[in-house]
Write a structure and sequence with these properties.
This is Glycosyl transferase family 1. Helix content is 40%, strand content 16%. It is α/β, with parallel strands linked by helices. It folds into 2 domains: 7-182 and 366-380, Rossmann fold (3-Layer(aba) Sandwich), CATH 3.40.50.2000; 185-362, Rossmann fold (3-Layer(aba) Sandwich), CATH 3.40.50.2000. Strand 12 (312-315), helix 13 and strand 13 form a beta-alpha-beta unit.
Length: 382
C-alpha cells in the first residue's frame, strides 16, 4: 500500500439524471470509497471536459471531509456561462492529481495527472457499431484507443471485456485489472405488499407481469423481446402484461411503430425511467425478468432481479454466462422463438430451484468487493 496520502480525481459526469450502468458504477465507486478510505483526498467532478448534464447541481451525496465536489460552491449560472462561452475553461482549471480515474471514456490532459486509471465497460461500440449513434462510437473509440496508449491501468468490469480489449485493441494483458460489478443491497430487502401496491399504482401497473429493464436502444434487443412476447399463447399474453422500464435510449422509433401496428399497447407498457428506490418493487412483483440483450460488458439488471428472487432469462452471449452461470436460464438473442419458448417456460413453472440458484449467484458479487479491489489498484500503482 502507498504510504503517502494520494490526491485522486474522479469523473462523475454520468451520475446525474437517468443514470445507466455507467452512472451506477460511478455512484457506487464514490459511495464505497467514502466509506472505505479516510486517508486519501478525493475531488469529484460532476461535469468534465465536454460532458455536461444540466442537472449536475442535484448531485450532493453525503461525503466525509476528504471528499470534495469540484466547484461545488460556485453558482450554476456562472458555470453555465463559463462552460458554454469559454471552451478553454473545460480543462484550464483542472488541478494536478496523483491519480485520475476516468469513468466515461474521457481522458483529461496529461498535465492534470501523474497516473491514469480508465474504466472500460464493454467495446460494443466497436464490435456492434450498428447499435450506436455516430457520436457515441467516436467518443468511446477515441477514449479507448488513447487509454490503451496512456493509461497506467485499465479496469475491465468482466473477463469478457478484458478479452475484447486484448483481441480488438491489442491492449497488453498486464495493463488490465478486472473488477466485477454488483447490485445495490436494497434489492435483497423484502418489501411489504402495501408499499408494493402503492408504487405499482403510481406507475399504473397491475400484477401479474413480465419485467424488462434497459434503455430503449438496439443493443438491449427490446424489439426481439416484444416480438417474442407476441408469439406467446394469447391466454398468457392476457394474463401477463409485459412491462418495459428504462431510459429513453436511441434508434427506437420502430419499437413504437411495431406496438401500434399489432395493437399491443393494451398488454405492453413502456413506462420509462424507474426511480432507483422503486425498482426493487418491480423485480419482487414480476413473474419473471427477461433480458435478451445482444451484448453486455456485465449486465447489472439481471443481478438485481436474482437478488430480488425474480426468475431470470438472459442471452447466452458476451459476458452474461460468465456473470450469471446457473443463476439464470438462457436464450439465443437472435432467435425470437427461443426467447418466447424460454419465457413461456418461466411463466408455466414455479421456478423455486432457479430462484435459489439465482440468489446464491447474486451473492457472489458485492460493491464492497469491487471498490476494495479498485482502492487496492490506486494504492499499488503509486
Amino acid at each position: 500500500m502507498a504510504n503517502k496520502k494520494l490526491n485522486i480525481g474522479i469523473d462523475a459526469s454520468f451520475v446525474h439524471g437517468e443514470n445507466s450502468g455507467t452512472g451506477e458504477y460511478t455512484k457506487q465507486l464514490i459511495k464505497h470509497l467514502s466509506e472505505l478510505d479516510k486517508k486519501n483526498s478525493y475531488t469529484i467532478f460532476p461535469f468534465f471536459t465536454y460532458i455536461y448534464n444540466n442537472s449536475f447541481k442535484a448531485y450532493h451525496p453525503k461525503l466525509p471531509d476528504n471528499f470534495h465536489i469540484f466547484w461545488k460552491n460556485i453558482p450554476k449560472r456562472v458555470i453555465d456561462i463559463l462552460w458554454n462561452k469559454f471552451y478553454m475553461f473545460r480543462t484550464l482549471f483542472l488541478p494536478h492529481f496523483d491519480i485520475f480515474h476516468s469513468t466515461t471514456f474521457t481522458i483529461p490532459p496529461p498535465s492534470s495527472y501523474a497516473k491514469l486509471i480508465f474504466t472500460v465497460y464493454d467495446v460494443s461500440f466497436f464490435t456492434h457499431p450498428q447499435f450506436h449513434l455516430k457520436e457515441n462510437i467516436e467518443h468511446c473509440l477515441k477514449g479507448t484507443k488513447e487509454a490503451v496508449k496512456r493509461a497506467d491501468v485499465i479496469i475491465a468490469i468482466s473477463e469478457h471485456t478484458k478479452k475484447d480489449l486484448i483481441k480488438y485493441f491489442d491492449c497488453p494483458e498486464n495493463k488490465i485489472k478486472v473488477t466485477p460489478l454488483a447490485c445495490d443491497e436494497i434489492f435483497y430487502k423484502k418489501i411489504n405488499q402495501t408499499e408494493k401496491n402503492k408504487v405499482l399504482h403510481k406507475y399504473k401497473i397491475t400484477v401479474p407481469f413480465i419485467f424488462h429493464l434497459g434503455s430503449l436502444e438496439p443493443r438491449k434487443n427490446t424489439m426481439g423481446l416484444i416480438k417474442a412476447y407476441r408469439l406467446l399463447p394469447k391466454k398468457l399474453q392476457n394474463k401477463y402484461h409485459l412491462v418495459i422500464g428504462g431510459g429513453k435510449g436511441w434508434l427506437n422509433s420502430s419499437i413504437y411503430d411495431y406496438i401500434r401496428k399489432y395493437n399491443l399497447s393494451t398488454n405492453i407498457k413502456i413506462i420509462g425511467y424507474i426511480n432507483n428506490d422503486d425498482l426493487p418493487i418491480f423485480y419482487q412483483s414480476a413473474k419473471c425478468f427477461v433480458y435478451p440483450s445482444f451484448y453486455e460488458g456485465f449486465g447489472i439488471p439481471p443481478l438485481e432481479a436474482m437478488a430480488s428472487d425474480c426468475p431470470t432469462l438472459v442471452s447466452n452471449n458476451s459476458s452474461l454466462p460468465e456473470t450469471y452461470q446457473e443463476g439464470a436460464i438462457y436464450c439465443k438473442s437472435n432467435d425470437i422463438e427461443d426467447i418466447s419458448n424460454k419465457m413461456e417456460q418461466l411463466l408455466m413453472s414455479n421456478n423455486e430451484d432457479l430462484i435459489k440458484k439465482g440468489k446464491i449467484q447474486a451473492k457472489k458479487f458485492s460493491w464492497n468487493k469491487c471498490i476494495k479491489k479498485t482502492l487496492n489498484i490506486y494504492e499499488k500503482i503509486f
